[in-house]
Amino acid sequence: MHAVTDPTFEHGIAILGGTGDQGLGLAMRFAKAGRPVVIGSRQLDRAETAAKEVVAAVPDANVSGCENPQACPRARVVILSVPFEHTAATLKSIRETLVSDQIVVSMGVPLATSVGGGPDQMIDVWQGSCAEMVASLLPAGVQVASAFQNVPAHRLRELDQPVECDVVVSGAKRAREDVMALCGLVPGIRAVDGGPLDNARIVESMSALLIGMSRRYRVSSGIGIRFTGLPKTAC
Amino acid sequence: MHAVTDPTFEHGIAILGGTGDQGLGLAMRFAKAGRPVVIGSRQLDRAETAAKEVVAAVPDANVSGCENPQACPRARVVILSVPFEHTAATLKSIRETLVSDQIVVSMGVPLATSVGGGPDQMIDVWQGSCAEMVASLLPAGVQVASAFQNVPAHRLRELDQPVECDVVVSGAKRAREDVMALCGLVPGIRAVDGGPLDNARIVESMSALLIGMSRRYRVSSGIGIRFTGLPKTAC
Fold first, then answer.
1. Bridge partners, residue B13, by sequence
2. Is A100 left (phi over 0), alpha (psi -120 to 50) or beta?
3. Grouped pLDDT means (10 residues each) for chain B, 235 residues
4. Residue B179: closest CA among B157, B203, B159
5. Taking an 8 Å Cβ-Cβ cutoff, which residues of chain A contact chain B?
6. B129: distance to nearest CA of chain A, Å?
7. Is residue B146 classed as helix, strand or coil in its secondary structure?
8. ipTM reported for the complex surpasses 0.90
9. Which residue in A195, A224, A228 is closest to B164 by CB distance?
């Protein structure tokens, strides 16, 4: 593990796969909240194009684009926003760059699309969930949290509207609390304590249910979730 | 399959395991909506005691208690509200009484409590979910739907308050639509089209997540779910 020297590291947020709809939406939201954002991609030009899209939406954004392995040393929080089938390859490409201070956030969902099936069905992952698979592939000391799976991309991109979604954050206590604090940066997102990482099994599968529901009700902007009965202090 | 002669059959709702917290709450709500309710139990005296509790809460209730096999011929909709580990035995005791007009509603959740584990963890069911197991054990022609898993018992019992929960209803089209219509009888419950029965795998597991969440946030009255972004016509 190498030393971290980037001045943005402490507050920086790297979004690998930040060129996709949901990752780009998160990038815009975090940039709008004043956080330094680094968009990672396998291809430099796609990352740079996405960074320009963020600036177009958020003119004073502190954002840049680079290849995935270069993105990680610039941010304490690394959000994995790649399709499930690219998760393991992405982690292999970055694992040498990670340091024990960092938190990797899994937002992947093992949808059946990864093996040619439908987006409203799941495949079984040996470790139990995408998040637990991510944990199994990371160097010791790197923290893992699971979050953001159920936030529709469309709502993230409507920057003048609150997102109106609860985000269930699972993982070990410190990582969980840090990611819950990040949720507070996005208007309309409420973080909910999702307990240990293995609860990602449930949270990830909820995405397949929401996708099926969006299709049945023809809601192109996506369907979100709110929990009722939580104490006010949960916000 | 024998002929149905009970005059309450068409509008009747049988709740097997209606002596438990959640079943009794549903019995009170449906009785309050004016539906004939039959509470089933393995023990006649417990069923009768539960029926008296319903009358105490809803003085003009049309409610009675009887053993499970006697309850089914009196209601077109039979709600299974027994602990998961009693599901198969209950079905065996009633299957000869069921007719092809009937709809069996699975609200069971394969919590790990059924094998001595915690209520915030699940066990795997060979068929995929409790609802699919129920379907596999029923005579041909009997319809199956999955619903009501995520409604906290406490909220059902507070009869002067709306329940404030969405209920995901899964199953074949006709059964699904009929059970969605039932949801409309309970103030604050909104039925959401959950698609085919195998989606019960996801909906059931959400109960374990909600139970864990209730513990972490110390919410004794339970946590419910609302979906955001559904069209108004979904209500």
1. B37, B77
2. alpha
3. 69 93 96 97 97 97 97 96 96 96 96 94 97 96 97 93 95 96 96 98 98 95 94 69
4. B203
5. 120, 122, 152, 155, 164-165, 168, 192-195, 199, 201-203, 205-206, 208-210, 212-214, 216-219, 221-231, 234
6. 13
7. strand
8. yes
9. A228
